[in-house]
């Protein structure tokens, strides 16, 4: 819980993991956009356990422009948690999460703010195109959005990353969600409020390499599906029902056949197929239940979401409850 009397109009939240090559250009772009907007602002950068000079670079920028603030996490927690940490520290009337690699064009902030001024609480930035991404990435992203769209009870906007504008109302709602599996775009959608979208062309990365490989993306997709849908659990009751019904029919046929024609020993193939098929299905369901149990285990442990090593730019006006965070 944070108290801050030093409120601003807009908080930009930038999760940074090994982004030293992008920061100079990023701040130049963001600052030029924000200066034309004539609003007070802060740029909260989360150093997510970078192993390069990202932190030093951020500190230099903080000395140059004190509105650039730094939350330095104790290790790499991953983008979703870095973003949650940044959101916790914001004081702005509106919050805009943005990637450090300039894939989310800062000039779009104008349009986001315009929609916000029209009265929307959440303004999503939806990708019209994905430049610099392979067909496999586009195909898998599309398949993912289709699947989760069908399974999740809340509609999760397609082709929409974390780049968006959130009114303080939505931010406070998101901060109340304590879950450890933080599929942020799901959480952003889940809170509801008055939402709208604008379209943009997503650019390739400015410098550096993406931190996501297909294995990470696959697990990210599973996180999204398992934390926003019970369907993978429920569907097996119906499949089980169907299999029981078919088994009953087959059993009836076997009984009648045995009564009419007597005992018929052959049947090795059907027996094996039946056993292997059911064994396979049972293992699959066990794995599925395991996915949910693993997530329940994560939740009940109740560990804090992240630890902050130090923070720069948050003056003594901020009091963080139950924390021994060093604030400079
Ligand atoms: N990021 C992070 N922690 C991580 C991985 C990524 O804070 O463990 C940040 C990264 O610095 C960038 C944003 O998340 O600002 C998006 O990462 P990336 O560009 O690698 O993802 P992509 O755009 O390929 O989805
Ligand atoms: Mg990127």
* Class per helix and strand makeup: alpha/beta
Radius of gyration: 25 Å
Provide a count of the helices.
Answer: 10
- Ions and ligands: uridine-5'-diphosphate, magnesium ion
The percent of residues in helical segments reads: 40-55%
Strand content: 15-25%
How is the biggest beta sheet arranged?
9 strands, mixed
- Which of globular, elongated, flat, extended, rod-shaped describes the shape? elongated
Care to count the β-strands? 9
The ordered H/E elements are: EHEHEHEHEHEHHEHHHEE
What does this structure look like?
49% of the residues lie in helices and 17% in strands. α5 packs parallel to α8 (214-228). Strands 7-5-6-4-1-2-3-8-9 form a nine-stranded mixed β-sheet, sandwiched between helices. The chain has 328 residues and is an alpha/beta fold. The model is unreliable at 317-328 (pLDDT under 50). The chain is elongated. It starts with 9 loop residues before the first strand and ends with a strand. The protein has helices at residues 20-37, 54-64, 79-89, 109-117, 135-151, 168-175, 184-190, 214-228, 231-261, 268-301; strands at residues 10-16, 41-47, 68-73, 94-97, 122-130, 160-167, 195-202, 308-312, 326-327. The structure holds uridine-5'-diphosphate and magnesium ion.
């Amino acid at each position: 819980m944070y108290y801050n009397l030093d409120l601003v109009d807009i908080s930009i939240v930038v999760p940074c993991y090994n982004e030293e090559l992008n920061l100079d250009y990023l701040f130049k772009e963001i600052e030029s956009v924000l200066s034309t907007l004539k609003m007070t602002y802060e740029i909260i950068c989360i150093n997510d356990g970078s192993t390069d000079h990202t932190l030093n670079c951020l500190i230099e920028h903080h000395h140059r422009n004190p509105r650039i603030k730094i939350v330095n996490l104790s290790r790499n927690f991953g983008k979703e948690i870095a973003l949650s940490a940044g959101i916790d520290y914001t004081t702005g009337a509106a919050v805009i999460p943005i990637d450090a690699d300039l894939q989310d064009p800062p000039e779009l902030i104008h349009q986001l703010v315009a929609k916000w001024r029209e009265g929307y609480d959440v303004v999503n930035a939806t990708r019209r195109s994905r430049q610099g991404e392979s067909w496999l990435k586009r195909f898998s992203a599309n398949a993912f959005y289709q699947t989760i769209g069908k399974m999740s009870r809340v509609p999760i906007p397609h082709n929409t990353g974390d780049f968006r504008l959130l009114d303080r109302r939505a931010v406070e709602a998101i901060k109340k969600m304590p879950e450890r599996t933080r599929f942020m775009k799901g959480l952003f959608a889940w809170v509801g409020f008055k939402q709208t979208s604008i379209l943009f062309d997503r650019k390739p990365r400015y410098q550096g390499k993406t931190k996501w490989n297909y294995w990470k993306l696959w697990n990210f997709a599973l996180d999204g599906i398992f934390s926003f849908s019970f369907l993978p659990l429920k569907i097996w009751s119906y499949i089980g029902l169907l299999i029981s019904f078919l088994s009953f029919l087959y059993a009836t046929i076997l009984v009648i056949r045995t009564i009419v024609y007597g005992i018929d020993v052959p049947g090795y193939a059907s027996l094996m197929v039946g056993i292997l098929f059911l064994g396979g299905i049972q293992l699959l369901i066990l794995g599925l239940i395991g996915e949910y149990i693993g997530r329940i285990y994560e939740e009940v442990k109740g560990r804090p979401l992240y630890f902050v090593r130090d923070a720069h730019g948050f003056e003594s006006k901020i009091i963080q409850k139950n924390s021994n965070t060093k604030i400079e």
